[in-house]
Amino acid sequence: MKQNWGKTVYYKQNHFVFKLAISILLVGFGFRLLFSQSSNVNPNVTDDNITITAPVVDKPIPSDLVESTNEFIQFQPKDDGSEKCNVFDGEWLPHSGGPAYTNNTCRWIESHQNCMGNGRPDTGYIYWKWSPKACELPRFDAKKFLEMMRDKSWAFVGDSITRNHLQSFLCLLSQVEDAVELYHDKDYKNRKWHFPSYNLTVSVMWSPFLAKADIFEDIDGVSSSEIQLHLDVLDKTWTEQFHTWDYVLFSSGKWFIKTAIYYENNSILGCHGCEGKNYTDLGFNFAYRKILKNLFDFIMNSNTKSTVIYRTSTPDHFENGSWSTGGSCDRTIPAKEGDFELSDLNRLLREIELPEISKAEEHASEKGMKLKLLDVTPLSLVRPDGHPGPYRHFYPFAKDKNAKVQYDCLHWCLPGPIDSWNDLLMNLVVNG
Ligand SMILES: *[C@@H]1O[C@H](CO)[C@@H](O)[C@H](O)[C@H]1NC(C)=O
Ligand SMILES: *[C@@H]1O[C@H](CO)[C@@H](O)[C@H](O)[C@H]1NC(C)=O
Ligand SMILES: *[C@@H]1O[C@H](CO)[C@@H](O)[C@H](O)[C@H]1NC(C)=O
Ligand SMILES: *[C@@H]1O[C@H](CO)[C@@H](O)[C@H](O)[C@H]1NC(C)=O
Ligand SMILES: *[C@@H]1O[C@H](CO)[C@@H](O)[C@H](O)[C@H]1NC(C)=O
Ligand SMILES: *[C@@H]1O[C@H](CO)[C@@H](O)[C@H](O)[C@H]1NC(C)=O
Ligand SMILES: *[C@@H]1O[C@H](CO)[C@@H](O)[C@H](O)[C@H]1NC(C)=O
Description:
Blueprint: H1 5-12, H2 15-26, E1 90-94, E2 128-132, H3 142-148, E3 153-158, H4 160-173, E4 180-184, E5 191-195, E6 200-206, E7 211-214, E8 227-234, H5 236-239, E9 247-250, E10 260-264, E11 267-272, H6 284-302, E12 307-311, H7 344-367, E13 370-374, H8 377-381, H9 419-431
Helix pairs in contact: 6-7
The chain binds 2-acetamido-2-deoxy-beta-D-glucopyranose (7 copies).
One 2-acetamido-2-deoxy-beta-D-glucopyranose is lined by residues 103-104, 116-117.
């Protein structure tokens, strides 16, 4: 019998303690997130004032409040005895082939993730390939993909990691035919491209909570008021267009740690981290679960013929400090399995994502709908070498070798390990 540790551990966790620990620790933090950045999407726009995200709490959650549940990442939501290879269970192997594109051959790389262009000196991190234990995972085949996607439309809905992923997708495809930009809003957060020879449309939609949220942040991510998050209303930015897409990829997560007032039926239900206000602190996991449930209900009720994919949240790798206390990420090779534990925050997100997606998958297959999990968390966890670090800026040490630079150990270099997410994405689409 196959033991499913993740499941056991998951049900043992004390949700209330978790919620409490997280809410206490997060109160009073200024969540100036890189996620809130806006106009730096264009390669030539630089915006030095953007603060790195706060995916990690500044202080570790006391160990007596949190059981060590590293095994949770091995949780298999679909352990139904089917013969299918689990492509998310594998390892990174050296790969001499190198990336399919570079900063010289793709013009869609955002400056903050253009590690090569920003002078990152080492290149070892691009010579690895994700290899599932039980089967061969072919690399993304842009030509074949474009042929398959003739007359189709794709959308990526989520936050700045979603955008990071989308740019990898565009770069891979643009090796066959460069995309033509059809639309962008003024902040370059919502954009649309077209591949003319294939009549493929690709959109990216900015919707960090997937639900209706009023966000009061300036361009630097400085917040003037709490986020007002409507747990029962999905974000019409994407719901209005949902029916037009053949393939939709959703993801979310990290924004939920920000201080927010939660609404339901337009009245205040409670909050997360709103110290000094007379509201019940419900914890962000309450909100995340609720919104995911709404998302999947919406999808089920739409009876869509589209393929819907949910991507799990992605870990960060700040070491020797957090994002705000000088944490860094200087590694140049992948970590060994077990070197990095999922942060408590990531684990909380994951323990909501996996069961909710699993339930939705079951429901979808009963209805003959296509809903799939893109589980990038485990394979991303062992790639601390794949982040821009100081190279989110153009030659950060050019003037001063010891310059103090804000590290980005959350987003991913392009090219980089995030390209493998698209190998997996293509596999999902081709093999179901
Ligand atoms: C980016 O640079 C190009 C060429 O320098 C320029 O034409 C374009 O307007 C710039 N875009 C933005 C958004 O500044
Ligand atoms: C960053 O913000 C400070 C204060 O708001 C401003 O003085 C500075 O010019 C900004 N730097 C950049 C690069 O925008
Ligand atoms: C790409 O990066 C290399 C350094 O690795 C640099 O020499 C080159 O100018 C960059 N190309 C562009 C278009 O920025
Ligand atoms: C392009 O694809 C769209 C669907 O995404 C379709 O409505 C349209 O007719 C196609 N255009 C051509 C020229 O085939
Ligand atoms: C919101 O409305 C729904 C249905 O009308 C109801 O079931 C639910 O209890 C209400 N929630 C709150 C917080 O009032
Ligand atoms: C907080 O809310 C409770 C219940 O709604 C109320 O009894 C109490 O007076 C409120 N406290 C303050 C300081 O407003
Ligand atoms: C963290 O600090 C240790 C000891 O000072 C050092 O050996 C290691 O390289 C540092 N790690 C990173 C990622 O900077």
